[in-house]
Every structure is written in structure tokens, then in C-alpha cells.
Write a structure and sequence with these properties.
The chain has seven helices and two strands, in the order αααααββαα. By secondary structure, the chain is mainly alpha-helical. Strands 1-2 form a two-stranded antiparallel ribbon.
Length: 204
């Protein structure tokens, strides 16, 4: 009985080893293909996010700022709403905190409350200068970013667990407030930014 069990045991061990040996090259090829696909997807995702964060959405925001007067930049429908100027300050502060600091390691001490409490008169030129500096920093960070870092943990674990979550969230946040800025601009200056989304996408 023990001998029979021993023979059975040997066969059970030998068979999987022979099976694995025969299929190993195919498994390696499949793994290589999967890795190649993952790398391609990482590269595509990073390119798409970089384009929206550093070019497409900022183009729309700049176009709106340029269309508004200094007075219109700080107009708000009521005290519980934000002006276009406040939204630009908020986006600059948020991007410097989450992207420049959180991803790129650039020192930044954020005052979030001040982004919303400002009532002007920060001029259009000052606002654009600050926003452009923010986008320049974002471009620098994302140009140097390796997509292999996507799965690294962020320092905001309860909000954006990985660096991919953080960068993806930055693009959504930027787009959300850009839409509000566009709406304010269209409301105050009828017809001033028609087909802005198309122009921003096609401009190189």
C-alpha cells in the first residue's frame, strides 16, 4: 500500500513538471505581450492626461480670462458663488499642491481659504501670470514623469491613493472648473468663446 502511494505521488509530481516545461515558452511570450500592452496603455494614458492638463483645458481658461474685464473677472451672482477669478486662483493652488508638490516634489505651502476669499482687484495680467507659471510647473512635472510610477502611493491616501489617481483627478478637477469659467464668460460676453473646445483641441 505504501509503495503504491509512493508511485502515485511520484506521478502526480512529475506530470505537472513535464506539463509546465512544455508550455513555458508560450507563457513567456504571453507575459511579454501583456507587459507590452500595459506599457503602451500607460504611455497613452500619460500622453492624454498631459495634453489635457497642460494644453487643452488651460487654453480654454486663458481664452476666457482674456475675454473678461478686470471687473468681470471678480463678478459673482451671489456671495455663496465663486467668480472666474476665484476659480483660476483655486485651480492654481490645487495644481501646485497635488501635482507640483504631490507628484513633482516641488515645495508649496497652500492657502486654500485665500483662493476663495479673494475679491480683487487682482488684475487680469497678474492672474494670467500666476496661472501660466502653474501650467509651466505642471508641464515640467509631467514631461519628467515616468508612467511606471502610476501605481506609487500618494501622500493623500484617503483621497487619491496612487499617483495615477492623483493625476487623473487633477484633470477632472481642472475640466470641472474650466466649464464653470466658460459658462460665466458666455453669460457675461455673449458669443465671445463659441466653439472654444474645438479650437483648444486643434491648436498645437
Amino acid at each position: 500500500m505504501m509503495l503504491a502511494l509512493g508511485v502515485f505521488h511520484c506521478k502526480a509530481v512529475i506530470k505537472p513538471i513535464e506539463s509546465c516545461a512544455g508550455s513555458q515558452p508560450e507563457n513567456l511570450v504571453e507575459q511579454a505581450r501583456n507587459m507590452s500592452t500595459e506599457n503602451q496603455l500607460d504611455a497613452i494614458a500619460l500622453t492624454a492626461l498631459r495634453g489635457r492638463i497642460t494644453r487643452i483645458i488651460p487654453e480654454q481658461i486663458r481664452a476666457c480670462i482674456e475675454e473678461l474685464s478686470d471687473q468681470q473677472l471678480w463678478w459673482r451672482p451671489n456671495e455663496h458663488a465663486n467668480s472666474a477669478g476665484n476659480l483660476v486662483l483655486h485651480l492654481s493652488g490645487s495644481m501646485r499642491h497635488y501635482l507640483s508638490r504631490g507628484v513633482g516634489g516641488i515645495a508649496y505651502d497652500r492657502d486654500r481659504a485665500a483662493e476663495f476669499s479673494e475679491r480683487g482687484p487682482v488684475s487680469k495680467e497678474q492672474l494670467l501670470k500666476s496661472f501660466d507659471e502653474t501650467i509651466d510647473q505642471a508641464t515640467q512635472v509631467l514631461d519628467q514623469f515616468n508612467s511606471a510610477r502610476f501605481t506609487e502611493a500618494s501622500d493623500e491616501q484617503n483621497y487619491v491613493p496612487t499617483l495615477f489617481d492623483s493625476i487623473f483627478n487633477i484633470s477632472i478637477h481642472l475640466a470641472t472648473h474650466a466649464g464653470q469659467i466658460v459658462y460665466i464668460t458666455k453669460m457675461l460676453n455673449e458669443g465671445s468663446v463659441d466653439e472654444l473646445w474645438i479650437r483648444a483641441h486643434t491648436r498645437k
